[in-house]
Write a structure and sequence with these properties.
The chain is built from 8 helices and 10 strands. The chain has a single domain, classed as Rossmann fold (3-Layer(aba) Sandwich). It is 30% helix and 24% strand. Bound molecules: adenosine-5'-triphosphate and magnesium ion (MG).
């Protein structure tokens, strides 16, 4: 079996860890202190890990390292056993799909179908394969009926799902979601949580959230505070006990 991440036959299943962070620190400028400091943790394959923490604790900054949007200057990011570098960043970006908090940052095309097709088309896939992937992705987030709608007219919650589908259509091995339930009303939230939970059937999922309802479906919760890793928990109950009861 090949061990090059660039190779189509790369054996993802050779490692139990999808993504690993080692001694990662980052500051936005030399004058500012680091906003994440010496973070080391593993994201197990096919698990749903939540990254929790107060506003400004560095969650989004950490996430931007997962697919090479930020390249590590201090420390490492390792994806399926391969250290992320400038030279393999393009390949790593195919493996790690990131959905930002605000769907307007991710939706560009006027028609839902075209927006979701953008990623697969960019991968130079055949039209039939693009079509299959768009349909699968829209079905997975349960918005196939929105396929021909104008993206700009969609509700916020619908736009979020289009943004999810756009990344899913590229078939990432690791799916990263920043605050997927922010702005989702309490009537729609249970369905949204069901959809998020279903994502881990086919891939590794990392969710950044403050939302207790999302933490309840997590296999693991990690806690960031002031840029540092302050805890790792195997359930929401353990996390809640440490943070809000004691
Ligand atoms: N582009 C930037 N330039 C300078 N500082 C930044 C930049 N982006 C974020 N920061 C700072 O880095 C720190 C961590 O921000 P980050 O967005 O990673 O936090 P967060 O945990 O995602 O917060 P939230 O829950 O509010 O989304 C904050 O103090 C923030 O002000
Ligand atoms: Mg954030």
């Amino acid at each position: 079996m090949s061990n090059s991440i660039v190779d189509k036959n790369y054996d993802f299943f050779a490692t139990d860890t999808a993504l690993k962070v080692e001694g990662l620190s980052f500051s936005y400028s030399r004058k500012q202190p680091p906003v994440i400091r010496d973070i080391s943790t593993n994201f197990p394959k096919n698990c749903l890990t939540v990254i929790a923490g107060p506003n400004g604790s560095g969650k989004t900054t950490l996430m931007k390292h997962f697919n090479g949007l930020f390249l590590p200057r201090m420390g490492k990011v390792v994806v399926f056993g391969h250290e992320l570098t400038k030279s393999n960043r393009k390949h790593i970006q195919k493996l790690v799909g990131v959905v930002f908090q605000n769907p307007d940052e991710q939706i560009f095309y006027p028609r839902v179908y075209d927006d979701v097709a953008f990623g697969p088309k960019n991968m130079r896939l055949r039209t039939s394969e693009v079509h299959r992937r768009v349909n699968n992705a829209l079905n997975e987030v349960k918005i196939i009926d929105l396929k021909d709608r104008i993206t700009f007219n969609l509700s916020f919650g619908e736009k979020k799902k289009v943004a999810f589908a756009g990344i899913l259509a590229m078939k990432p091995e690791i799916f990263v979601l920043d605050e997927p339930t922010i702005g989702i009303d309490p009537w729609s939230k249970p369905k949204m949580i069901e959809i998020i939970e279903s994502f881990k059937r086919k891939r590794t999922v990392i969710v950044i959230t403050h939302d207790f309802d999302v933490m309840k479906i997590a296999d693991r919760v990690i806690l960031l505070k002031e840029g540092q890793l302050k805890g790792e928990f195997s359930s929401f109950e353990d996390f809640y006990q440490q943070e809000f009861v004691h």
